[in-house]
User: Fold this.
Amino acid sequence: MTAPHKVTYFVLLAEMRTGSNLLESNLNEFEGLNCLGEVFNPAFIGHQGCDELLGVTMAQRDMNPFALLDAIRLQDGLAGFRYFHDHDPRILNTIMEDPRCAKIVLTRNPMDSYVSLKIAQTTQQWKLGDVKTKRSAQVTFDPVEFEHHVTQLQAFQLRIQRMLQTFGQSAFYIAYDDANDLEVLNGLAKWLGCGARIDKTSDKLKRQNPEPLEQKLTNFGAVREGMARLDRFNLSRTPSFDPARGGMVWAYRACRNVALAYAPLAGGDDSDVLDWMAAIDDTTRDNLLHAFSPDSWQDWLRANPGHISFTVTRHPLDRAHDVYRRQVLHGARKNLRQFLLRTYDIALPEDGAPPDEYTRADHKRGFAAFLRFLHANLNGQTGMTTHPAWALQSDLIADIAARGPIRHVLRDDRLSDSLHLLGQTCGRALPEFHAEQRRHKLTLASIYDPEIEALGRAAYGEDYARLGYADWHAGADMAAS
Assistant:
């Protein structure tokens, strides 16, 4: 088997904890092959800590990723890189359509990759070169989190499969267990058109967690529940045979005493709505029905004929500001912070910096830069994937509606009256809804002006139109500003 065209570069399509570091290390043992790492990772270029590769800086790559792609093509021998689902989306169509780019698809049993990822996040050890430095940890298996992990993996694999089919191309599939198999590796080199062969694999990396699964989990018994949520017979199969699955409904929250279900939209603070629903059940928000599987969701629907499902939208500017304040300024989205600092002339407070060091002028410049980023990102013009937290609300609603019914789309600035009407529809006297008044120093009202409005409309014009929002005003939602 050989690649169908003479190739000038290659891509290793994989995900975190699938063995891509090991496979890269082994590929680099072949004379004439050079895997350069995760060259389109938004957080670095090639490998952790690197900010330049082949004469291209991260800032230059962020502006024009195709310049770096050209540099890779022009390398002596055959150069390539690793590409994950959350790497620069602008290049994916180009490399997948290009017959001169050899595609290698690395897969791993999702259970193993999930547990490996959890352990790496706990120990902060992502590669192991010497067993003497190995860090061990037991982790907790979360069935809902595992379902999300599997769904995300398979969505990318199915997308790759679809692109290969529509572009009339093939790929070399390799499983994690074969990433250190000498015969398979030499076969891969032959497929790439490389004349070199190796007689031993790389000794630079060691397998990190060889122990049995039950020794790596604190709650091994929960695996049964996680497997029951999925079609277990497809967990370890390659994407060539993975059937499409229906969308997840695990994000729904539902009452026990009333046929009422809520579909949260990412990027918002749902605590007030969840507390209102908890008051209906005379419980806490954590005790609402949640973590639905497709089967348990259907069971709930059948047990609640005439059910009412709803979601809540926010003014696009208000939602964007809340995401910026919580997830960029005070959150853990370090990749996005670094991107904004590299690309725009703004100041962002360091972790733990006194609030007074971040002025209103700084806040306006930073938020304006974030809105410009959103405009570019939502139009596929940045090296970062679009996260649900800042995706179009109208798109999120359409996605949820394709998976489960949404009877009512409510607006947060009219929520008290709207939820009262829902109670009448249910034929029940439901508790009154009260939004908690939250005060923040960094408010949208303090920086709002025509420029901010124009930037918001440029980024979220479709939401303004589809959801019927006018210009933002200070009274739109003072609680969440």
User: Anything to note?
Assistant: DSSP finds 17 helices and eleven strands in the chain. Residues 248-481 form one domain. The chain has two domains: 9-234, 248-481.
